[in-house]
Amino acid sequence: MSQKPDRYAVIGNPIAHSKSPQIHSAFAEQSGELLEYTRILGEKENFAHHVHDFIRNSGRGLNVTVPFKQDAWQLVNEHIGSAALAGAVNTIILTENGQLQGANTDGIGLVRDLANNHEVELAGKDILILGAGGASRGILAALLEQQPAHVLIANRTASKAQDMALEFQSLGEISGSGLQNLKSQNFDIIINATSAGLNDRIPDIPDTLLRQNGVCYDLMYADKATAFVRWGQQHKARLSLDGLGMLVEQAAESFFLWRGVHPQTAPVIKMLRP
Ligand code: ATR
Predict the structure, then answer these.
(1) Best of 110, 177, 195 to mutate for ligand 1, by most ligand atoms within 8 A of CB?
(2) Shortest CA distance to 215 belongs to which of 108, 115, 135?
(3) Which atom, in ligand 1's list, is nearest to the CA of 198?
(4) Where does ligand 1 bind, in terms of residues with CB under 6 Å?
(5) Which residue CA neighbors atom 18 of ligand 1 most closely?
(6) Fewest CB atoms within 10 A around its CB: which of 139, 247, 254, 257?
(7) How close is the Cα of 128 to the center of ligand 1, in Å?
(8) In ligand 1, which atom is closest to the CA atom of 66?
(9) Any idea where the domains of the chain sit in the sequence?
């Protein structure tokens, strides 16, 4: 009798354009893991129902994307790794004894893309994060773990950045401010975690923000260079990167949490790059 593949899925709304099925199918093929990975269009009010339904039908794990990452954090029985502080879960793991564990692999995905794929070290660097929403919260613990000299969160609404810095202060050197306080400061690495790029815009930032040989990173990706990637190019960044590598790296960490296997990410990034 042939063995049935283990079932996984990504849940979000919208979900049709998610690249996760393609990424995980490539990982499975490459590593010889027998699994099936599908998309679930989640209804806003029914997140818990969708998850329990999937698990009842032999689901072993889920990726969670917008707008359900906070719902997933609420739903799971236990948070692992950086998920507790992140307040958001992007990976659900069914344990042997039927418990749901929640992880957040976004931060590790970003750090691995920078360090392994682009040889950008974070230790000792001055890092600026633009934005103080869910995307920033998801990456902070992993960034601080790399022991940068300092992380500044700058946000249009200054109080949100200040509050977030206080929440993470036990993990490293971190502070928060308003975007308007950035004049006369500069940084080795600037990470755009705002949602301004959804409208092909960038936050209002000074032209002097990036140090020589600095690196820009946009957590968003698109088929064409995003507005922030273009800003980096125009301001002589050594590297101006979008979030495609992070997307594949966060998926690889989810795959590892489920299967105990580290897939190769470089061929998958290459396959997805338009
Ligand atoms: P996400 O989950 O993508 O982080 P979010 O939690 O809604 O989404 O947060 C969006 C972030 O982008 C916020 O930091 C927001 O700034 P405010 O807190 O001041 O609203 C920021 N943002 C969105 N559009 C922006 C713009 N045009 N300029 C600057 N910041 C912007």
Answers:
(1) 195
(2) 115
(3) 24
(4) 131-135, 155-157, 160, 193-196, 201, 203
(5) 157
(6) 257
(7) 15
(8) 2
(9) 6-104+246-272, 107-242
Question: What average pLDDT is seen over the chain?
Answer: 97
The per-residue pLDDT for range 213-255, each reduced to its tens digit, is: 999 999 999 999 999 999 999 999 999 999 999 999 999 999 9
Q: What is the distance in A from the centroid of ligand 1 to the CA of 196?
A: 7
Q: Which CATH number fits domain 6-104+246-272: 3.40.1180.10, 3.40.50.10860, 3.40.50.720, 2.40.110.10?
A: 3.40.50.10860
Top CATH class, 107-242: alpha beta
Instruction: Give the residue, by CA position, lying nearest to ligand 1 atom 24.
Output: 196
Which residues are the active-site residues? 69
Q: Do domains 6-104+246-272 and 107-242 have the same CATH topology?
A: yes
